[in-house]
Amino acid sequence: MKKLVKWLATVVSWNFYQTRKRALFAITLAVSMVATVMLSLTVNAQTPPLRSPDSELRGVWLTNIDSDVLFEQNRLKSSLQRLSELNFNIVYPTVWNWGYTLYPSKVAAATIGRSLDPTPGLQGRDMLKEVVEEGHKQGLKVIPWFEFGFMAPADSQLAKRYPQWLTNRRNGTRIVKEGTHDRVWLSPFRPDVQKFIQNLIVEIVKNYDIDGIQFDDHFGLPSELGYDPYTVALYKKEHRGRAPAANFKDPEWVRWRANKITDYMKQVFTAIKAVKKDCIVSVAPNPQRFSYEFFLADWEKWERMGLVEDLVLQIYRDDLNVFVKELEYPEVKAAKSHIPVSIGILSGLKGRSVPMQQIQTQVQKVRDRNFAGVAFFFYETLWNMSKEKPLDRQTALQKIFPTRTAYPNLLTGWKP
Description:
The protein has 416 residues and is an alpha/beta fold. It has helices at residues 2-46, 73-85, 106-112, 127-137, 157-161, 191-207, 229-238, 251-275, 288-295, 299-304, 320-327, 330-336, 356-368, 380-383, 390-400; strands spanning 57-62, 90-93, 96-97, 100-101, 141-142, 151-153, 176-178, 181-185, 212-216, 280-284, 310-314, 341-346, 348-349, 352-353, 373-377.
């Protein structure tokens, strides 16, 4: 009997201990949940919610360098269809390259003596019209890319016809190497050059049902150039006879040229809007420090002046830490608070394959920071020009863009 009583006492004591333990656990859990909710509310009060996933810019550049996507009508059509199936919603086809237009141009015919790039695959066609019509049919926005800007091949008809339009270094040399290619640059400070480039741009805006037009760093000028007689004389006129600095990186000399290019950007923006108010003016530059120092393209100032309605920042970096750092510069965050900012991601180059895993990771880093979207450079390297199998690349892209989304409204109502 004594043993039974002792055993019952032990059981009662143990049950009491377990009941007390469960009660303490429940209280601790409740306090923890309350604390978590309170912390979550605090964090959410400080961090704006991510944009709705039903709107994201998903673009790709279509170029005629290391690519023949533009040179055959059926191939172009099937490529646009495939991009649509993979839930892309915008393409940037090049329209000004190698010193020629890639669409039939009266402006080019009158100035260069040829209305269209001589590549056989473009003859008898209007490539831009095809992209616009098929692209819109497939639900894709079309923003032509004015790729070469003020740059031209050294042996182009344009350079040969108008040597006075070309600018040079202080030592008189003109050739700028781009890989293995010899390039020259038209002076963006000459009124006749400005008129020619603007006429090409306005011609496209007038004649095609495009959604916008895009420029990049080539709408500036390599900072080592600008010592041609016309530009030097203009600088002297505005500086009481003082010549430009011998050092092309001199801050005042850089600032003066960059400001002249900004003035021209404003002129072009106004001309575009006079023809088609809802034509988006898009700029796809390198990060600000590089664009300004090496190309005199002060896109940060352009953005502040309201001359950029869509910024697609080229961040072609393999190092993920460097890539992320570029996303977080103050001028990028400032632009993101005013206009849609997307990130250009390198999907590969000829002879340089970029793994899909790297692309997926970079897309996620962009999304984590609530950018407007991504654009890939360039079409051929999405799956045709890669060490990975085309089907594997396309399957991975389907995972990146699993559902169709609306293209962001770039003109009205944007909020980061």
